[in-house]
Design a protein that fits this description.
By secondary structure, the protein is an alpha/beta fold. It has 2 domains: 111 residues, Nucleotidyltransferase, domain 5 (2-Layer Sandwich), CATH 3.30.420.40; 87 residues, Nucleotidyltransferase, domain 5, CATH 3.30.420. The protein is 30% helix and 30% strand. The strands form 2 sheets. A 5-stranded mixed beta sheet has the order 3-2-1-4-5, with helices on both faces. A hairpin with a 2-residue loop joins strand 6 and strand 7. The radius of gyration is 18 Å and the shape is globular. The termini are far apart.
Length: 231
């Protein structure tokens, strides 16, 4: 099964093409420019590197949140447009799930953190059990202090740009029980998104392109203005 996957949920932007267990191509940029400027070029580049074209994909995967509202809208609208044009099935994946599985280790709580701005982080908690990633706490948006509440004794592994941003705070609060992922594990990779989506594609658990909604968690800053009412 060939899958094209994208992630635009954070400052980095990533595109990958996988074929079952094989990574055929992956392009990741962390230059911080708006993803709308280069996402389609990155998709074209990844497909060219893989020696394939969009019509040869079996499915399209993407991060559906949480993360940057603008970034998510760019990635999701791009994939929905491609899916509508090609009639390919789609699967949306939690970016926190992807970060957790990139850093997963046994016998430790895994705490991916994505910077949410406003001195908050998007967070969840996981544990690696019998070769499977188990979510122990659902996605939330919290202050860094609340996000690490209850992790005083058992070792916990932190990953993601939120973990990097608040590393000093986490160390000060948790001491030696705080562990941090390697640098290569803090950037969300589209290949991880693709592999997580694989099982859902195989069993037909796909998303409806006409009813899909991003997982923002927090309400967007932009609001639709109230209808004009004449005096």
């Amino acid at each position: 099964m060939r899958i094209l996957a994208v992630d635009t949920s954070t400052r980095s932007c990533s595109v990958a093409v996988v074929d079952r267990r094989d990574l055929l191509a992956e392009v990741t940029s962390g230059n911080g420019r708006t993803h709308s400027r280069h996402l389609m070029a990155m998709i074209d580049s990844a497909l060219e590197l893989a020696g394939l074209n969009l019509s040869m994909m079996d499915g399209l995967a993407f991060t559906h949140g949480p993360g940057s509202f603008t970034g998510l809208r760019i990635g999701i609208s791009t994939i929905l447009g491609l899916a509508a044009a090609t009639r390919k099935p789609i699967v949306g994946i939690s970016g926190l799930d992807a970060l957790a599985i990139q850093a997963a280790v046994p016998n430790m709580t895994i705490c991916p953190l994505i910077d949410g701005g406003r001195n908050e982080v998007y967070c969840a908690r996981y544990r690696w059990v019998n070769g499977e990633l188990v979510k122990e706490a659902a996605e939330q948006v919290l202050s860094p202090e609340l996000a690490i509440t209850g992790l005083n004794d058992a070792p916990a592994l932190f990953a993601g740009n939120g973990a990097l941003l608040y590393q000093t705070l986490i160390r000060d609060r948790l001491g030696d029980s705080a562990r941090f992922a390697q640098n290569c594990q803090n950037t969300l990779r589209a290949s991880t998104v693709a592999w997580i989506s694989m099982k859902r594609f195989e069993i037909g658990d796909v998303d409806d392109i006409f009813r899909f909604e991003p997982m923002y968690i927090r309400r967007p800053d932009a609001k639709i203005p109230a209808p004009f009412k004449p005096l």
